[in-house]
Amino acid sequence: MTADGTQTQEKQYAGDITVHDAWDLLKSNPEAVLVDVRTNAEWGYVGLPDLSPLNKKTHTISWVLFPDMSVNPHFIEQLKAAQENPESPVLFLCRSGVRSIAAAIAATNAGFTESYNILGGFEGDLDENRHRGTQSGWKAENLSWVQG
Question: Are 135 and 125 spatial neighbours (Cβ–Cβ below 8 Å)?
């Protein structure tokens, strides 16, 4: 509560960052990790961020499980295996930046104090032709990625 008696919104996760800021943080901080929270179908058919230029790997931990899209009951356990230090940055990425917010909130609630959502996600927003990957997100910003 503030001094004037109004309610303040609790901070639910460390914040939102752009794909370029995410790349820079991954490059500059050896403890920072990228967690792609999409499904195995998305990783296989759409592609994955390629962190090999940074001598790192993308951690793939689904927030929801394909095909029923239920929340992954082992998410936090799998996250702890990917990022052993809960005080080091964890950058969450999904298709367009929605599931990654939920993952960042859950991680924060589990004690990961530097949990970030990557704005625009991997594919970004829909363009005027209802296509993703052309106007925002990891792919549209020409960051390193692989498919297949």
Answer: yes
Strands annotated E in the chain = 15-17, 33-36, 48-49, 58-60, 64-65, 70-71, 90-93, 115-118, 145-146
- Rounded to whole angstroms, the Cα distance separating 106 from 110 reads 6
Question: For residue 17, which of 121, 113, 87 has the smallest C-alpha distance?
Answer: 121
User: pLDDT of 79-115, one tens digit each?
Assistant: 999 999 999 999 999 998 889 999 999 999 999 999 9
CB atoms within 10 A of CB 79: 24
Residue 5 pLDDT level (bands cut at 50, 70, 90):
very low
User: Is 89 within 8 Å of 33 (Cβ atoms)?
Assistant: yes
Q: Which are the contacts of 96, defined by CB distance < 8 A and separation ≥ 6?
A: 120, 121, 122, 123, 124, 125, 132, 137
Q: Alpha-carbon distance 46 to 23, whole Å?
A: 19
Report the first-to-last Cα separation within the chain, whole angstroms: 50
